[in-house]
Description:
Blueprint: H1 31-43, E1 45-49, H2 83-91, H3 104-114, E2 118-124, H4 156-166, E3 170-176, H5 205-225, E4 231-235, H6 247-252, H7 263-273, E5 278-281, E6 308-312, H8 328-340, E7 344-348, H9 359-375, E8 389-390, E9 393-398, E10 403-409, E11 420-424, E12 433-436, E13 444-448, E14 451-455, H10 458-461, E15 469-475
Amino acid sequence: MKPILAFLFLLFVINSGKAQQHAExxxxxxxxxxxxxxxxxxxxxxxxxxxxxxxxxGVVESWSLCPEDEGWTQRKGPYGxxxxxxxxxxxxxxxxxxxxHFDPDKWVRAAKDAGMKYVVFTTKHHxxxxxxxxxxxxxxxxxxxxPFSTNPKSNVAKEIFNSFRKENFMIGAYFSKPDxxxxxxxxxxxxxxxxxxxxxxxxxxxxxxxxxxxxxxxLQELMTGYGKIDILWMDGGWVRPxxxxxxxxxxxxxxxxxxxxxxxxxxxxxxxxxxxxxxxxRAVPGAYENYTTPEQQVPAAPLSYPWESCITMGNSWSYxxxxxxxxxxxxxxxxxxIVSRGGNLLMNIGPGPDGDWDPEAYxxxxxxxxxxxxxxxxxxxxxxxxxYSDGDIFFTQTNGGNNEYAFLLGNENGLILPSxxxxxxxxxxxxxxxxxxxxxxRLKWKQDGDVINVTIPAALQNNSxxxxxxxxxxxx
Length: 476
């Protein structure tokens, strides 16, 4: 994941031009995967967490190790002037990482109360530090070099998965295909040149085979020793077979090598151990990208395949001291917009070096939970329905089409209901009942073709007790 500047959040509003869309999508042919994918699509709201020793510095996850001159790769601080000095100091964070406040049960309570239904956790990011007890490397949370290794909860990924699984969350394991610590990916004989492997796998096939084995073995550990896993969320799309069809993205990422890690073999092993596993080989269209992941964006219209917008609660994916969090209203309205397009929202929170979230994250989740308890019936297990939105009103559909929901978004002044709310549904089906969720008072309404005009009493307009977005249930 790449960090964003604060102003980029403004671009989230229904951006179709940059959303990750694929002309090629291959639906899974395994009935168990199809069933799991359908269940996942009904969940709508999930929790993402980027966490590792980099949180001690409050810097972007992994990317400051990447020798590319991009806004998100800049090295700062006392070690920033020299690359090798910086890399040594960065990797030495392992020896001081001791998040003693780590309490995944606390996270589960907050996420569940907010209405989140699944979790995706970074078992390993591009820097190669494993947040699980891998046997393939000593660069890990459970290493004797890491102070937290003596803690009973040191196998962080297992603790998180177990805690969330007990509350019936779907469990997702994020895994970075590139590994910038592994000598089989960034061979110490050569300096790293960019985000890619720093040698030609075709010229050194034995070394590349060692990397393939290393990757396979780590994934096998995750698929066999961490309980039921529902989603394998693989990042680093430049690690892929170099085919003509991939040339545009490969060029963008500076990839000139064939970085084939044998996904068919990985998938066969993973699904033998985790039947029905959803695989997300991110940004690599084909059989192993069961859903797509537009980053920090909301497509303008429903996509023809399953998808999930992954978006930060703050401005950064990883912990940054004093990060500016999106308001509860912004998050709720993001959720409404994404669900109206048929997608899921995966909201990221970066834990700090002490092992806990910023208090603001808990405040946001509590606020969202209050809203979702009133309006969740129009969010979960819903489908997109044309016209999807009309001005500040966004639509969803549930119950086989018998119920339609129209969410009227608030503005910078809050949620103030007008005297007449005109809901243009785009169809002239006869409405049997209309209800404003969270309000006991019955409202008067009149249908005129595909428009429903709802009269809002004066007492409700400024004092409805509702916030962020008002949900109207329309029953046909």
